[in-house]
Design a protein that fits this description.
By secondary structure, this protein is an alpha+beta fold. It has a two-stranded antiparallel sheet.
């Protein structure tokens, strides 16, 4: 449903596939087929590089464009963090991991989200303090 240059392209998925190991033993697995992203994630780059102001603007602009698009389509990502901002081979931003995504009006359609999802270290303080619930 989301088609944007700064959002990873998903091509398919399977919830209940069978994988065989080298000995012929089978295991039930799930998988996602997505666009190949070879540039790593923002978390790793921040830990190993210093960015110029121009590079920061480049990354931030692309991230904001993708988030704006997601919101305009009526969704909230709910787990945006440096680990979920990846780069393609040209070091263009690609937002990934839509596992906690839900409609902006909330799962109950009343404009609020019930329950806390996402990565605690990246949540707003009022969510961690449970003040909104």
């Amino acid at each position: 449903m989301l088609d944007h240059p700064h959002i990873v392209a998903y091509y398919g998925f399977e919830n209940n596939a069978t994988m065989y190991d080298v000995n012929g033993h089978e295991t039930q697995v799930g998988y996602i087929v997505q666009e190949l992203l070879t540039g790593g994630d923002l978390f790793d780059h921040v830990n190993t590089h210093s960015f110029s102001e121009d590079v920061c603007r480049y990354i931030f602009k692309q991230t904001l464009q993708a988030v704006n698009y997601i919101h305009c389509k009526g969704f909230a990502h709910r787990d945006l963090k440096p680990d979920n901002i990846m780069f393609n081979q040209n070091y263009d931003v690609k937002i990934v991991d839509f596992g906690f995504t839900c409609p902006l009006e909330g799962p109950l359609g009343i404009g609020t989200f019930k329950g806390i999802t996402g990565t605690r270290g990246y949540m707003a303080p009022e969510i961690v303090a449970n003040e909104q619930w």
